[in-house]
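ok here's Response regulatory domain-containing protein, seq below lol
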Amino acid sequence: MVIEADLLLAINLEQDLAAFGYSVYSAPTVAAAEHILDTCRPDLAFLDVAARDGSTSRVAERLSLARIPWVVVSNLKPVPQGQDAIFLSRPFLSKAYYPTQLEAVISAGTSRQPWP
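and the structure came out like this:
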């Protein structure tokens, strides 16, 4: 699952994940991401800190409770304050990533199941 507000960045990440053999559900909003979580269980999720309708921290909490591994994908690393502190405990992938970095994050995420 990919939660990304920017359509071009979402498409790029979807294509890269598909190249690694993943089927991808994409959501530009928290509401759309929650609908995906209500209807299926992703193997792995990639979340930008902010979706079109606000912080993805609520989705991050749901993923954590469901023990679904997830990765922060953002231009900026989250700061340790408020609800966004949940993002500090997860692997981070800069939006300017190389495919080898994406592959390393996928390997780390899927090998440490279930994440705390």
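fwiw The chain has one domain: 2-111. kinda neat tbh
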